Amino acid sequence: MAANVAFEILYKEYYARVFGLCRRLLGSPTLAEDATQETFMRAYKYFKRYDTSQPFWRWIATIANNHCIDLLR
User: Within its chain, how far is the Cα of 69 from the centroid?
Assistant: First the structure.
């Protein structure tokens, strides 16, 4: 399966969870929407580094959490 197709499937499956995490951390749906998009852009950029033996949620949640913390600083 091509990486683009795999990432598209993961995007559709995890978008709502990432958005919910960002919304809880940032307290704003508008900021959460932007943070979610940025999270997935970063994940896509580094998708080749993702260790498929690990849960995808843990990896993408870490990216989202770190990005939201950076925004709150």
Answer: 13
b/e map of 39-65 (b: 16 or more CB within 10 Å)?
Answer: bbeebeeeeeebeeeeebeebbbebbe
- 8-64: per-residue pLDDT in tens? 999 999 999 999 999 999 999 999 999 999 999 999 999 989 998 999 999 999 999
Contact partners, residue 30, CB within 8 Å, separation at least 6: none
What sign does the CA torsion over 2, 51, 11, 45 have? negative
Residue 25 tokens read as 């951390």
pTM of the predicted model as reported, rounded to 2 decimal places: 0.91
What is the spatial distance between Cα 34 and Cα 41, in angstroms, rounded to a whole number? 11
Delineate the domains of the chain, giving CATH numbers in brackets. 3-72 (1.10.1740.10)
